[in-house]
Specification:
- The chain is mainly alpha-helical.
- The protein contains 10 helices and no strands.
- The longest helix is centred in the C-terminal third of the chain and has 34 residues.
- Helix content is about 65%, strand content about 0%.
- InterPro entries: Homeodomain-like_sf (IPR009057), InsJ-like_HTH (IPR055247), IS150/IS1296_orfA-like (IPR052057), Trp_repressor/repl_initiator (IPR010921), WH-like_DNA-bd_sf (IPR036388).
- This is Insertion element IS150 protein InsJ-like helix-turn-helix domain-containing protein.
- Belongs to the IS150/IS1296 orfA family.
Length: about 230
């Protein structure tokens, strides 16, 4: 990614010098301190959009999952280079496609290792603790809200991941509490009932903490390839 000090005018100047010098990068990288890949990306933008394309965009372009999958498939076929695929699907720069490939390969490796070791990462769970839901939402956010990959990694359904992320975005972590079957606030309780409730809540809290720790360990060990049959 280019340093923010490179204005549209300077990028344009560098690209013109690059073309004039017969596309020799060594001189430009020393003169302007710019990475050679950035110069090539700027040239691609100029060829497609002109100087206007070099101007700062306040919002990044959004690509559909279908476009990402098609672009990855084309590159992996071996028939296209990163630059050719980027041009074909109008991706802003090869570095964007490179990040997609990196994430795709990471997810695939994790799932393949899980399958080889017989680890049940894809079995759909009916119940989850709040701690698990928090970690699953974090995984989804770290992977650009790829709900399907998150569901496969964490052993829950696509719909569950989608709903938890939506709840978190609307109400924060507290929105992930499971309030099913809980009594209404203010319900009259005897001292004995209050004590029983406190004991149950303490037991649930201990279970939640244990499940959260186990969940994090499992993901960490799986990513490192440390889990064996």
């Amino acid at each position: 990614m280019a340093h923010p000090y490179y204005t549209a005018d300077l990028k344009w100047k560098i690209v013109q010098e690059y073309k004039k010098e017969g596309r020799v990068l060594a001189k430009l990288t020393r003169k302007y301190g710019v990475h050679h890949s950035s110069v090539k990306e700027w040239e691609q933008i100029v060829n497609k959009e002109g100087k206007k394309g070099l101007e700062h965009r306040p919002h990044e372009k959004v690509y559909s999952k279908k476009v990402r999958q098609a672009a990855i498939a084309d590159y992996q076929s071996g028939n296209y280079s990163l630059r050719e695929v980027s041009q074909k699907y109008e991706i802003s720069s090869p570095s964007v496609l490179r990040n997609w490939l990196k994430n795709y390969n990471r997810h695939r490796d994790i799932l393949e290792r899980a399958k080889e070791r017989g680890i049940s990462m894809t079995a759909k769970r009916q119940k989850t603790t709040k701690g698990e839901r928090i970690q699953i939402v974090r995984v989804a956010l770290q992977n650009d809200k790829d709900y399907q990959v998150t569901a496969e990694l964490c052993g829950v359904s696509y719909q569950q991941v989608y709903q938890w992320v939506r709840k978190y975005e609307e109400g924060g972590w507290d929105a992930l509490d499971d309030r099913r079957g809980k009594p209404k606030p203010g319900a009259a309780l005897t001292i004995e009932e209050k004590l029983k409730r406190q004991i149950r809540e303490k037991e649930k809290e201990n279970e939640r903490l244990k499940a959260e720790v186990d969940f994090l360990k499992k993901l960490e060990q799986l990513e490192k390839g440390e889990i064996k049959r």
